[in-house]
Hints:
The complex is a heterodimer of chains A (117) and B (112). Chain A has 117 residues and is an all-beta fold. In chain A, 0% of the residues lie in helices and 50% in strands. The N and C termini of chain A lie far apart (37 Å). Chain B has 112 residues and is mostly beta strands. Chain B is built from no helices and eleven strands. Chain B is globular. Chain B starts with a strand and ends with a strand.
Amino acid sequence: GAVVSQHPSRVICKSGTSVKIECRSLDFQATTMFWYRQFPKKSLMLMATSNEGSKATYEQGVEKDKFLINHASLTLSTLTVTSAHPEDSSFYICSASDTGESNQPQHFGDGTRLSIL
Amino acid sequence: KQEVTQIPAALSVPEGENLVLNCSFTDSAIYNLQWFRQDPGKGLTSLLLIQSSQREQTSGRLNASLDKSSGRSTLYIAASQPGDSATYLCAVATGANSKLTFGKGITLSVRP
Lengths: 117, 112
């Protein structure tokens, strides 16, 4: 089955550090990937839609300069949290579906737990 | 704006019981509906996908139904096991390869 790999699984760093999270589709191609953020006991909130070869589409209220997204290939999207602060601490999850197949489910990575001290 | 609701937020049942998890959505113009499982601190595992033209999907002990006109879906779990303990999320898509709108999930605990 389709596998999405997300790395790293956990990051602990000091305030002001920039953190890059990778999302890879291992056995399929994805022109579109999605980045979500999840707060404790809350649902997943879509942050942005990552489009291969073009700019990402951000949801209302999400700072594009804060959360930089790059989707340079059909199998890799990266999310960079720039100058992270404690309020950016959260669980970040990416998802993708197989571009070559219609009506396919979204497959999710295992998430990245980001803790900013 | 699409809104997805899952009630109750938590459920505890004894092992072996059959159970139903409910999901409702406000906009019936959906492309598909997906049920996921999430274990603590982990990502999401896709359980079942129902296209808008379908009424139900089955996988093992799981059966998901969809009533698009009334904006409802149910996830039926037969003969529940302690290993089924997790949070179950319902999500709807409004277009092909489209972003998902999630409910807050139902945290299920199956007691041995």
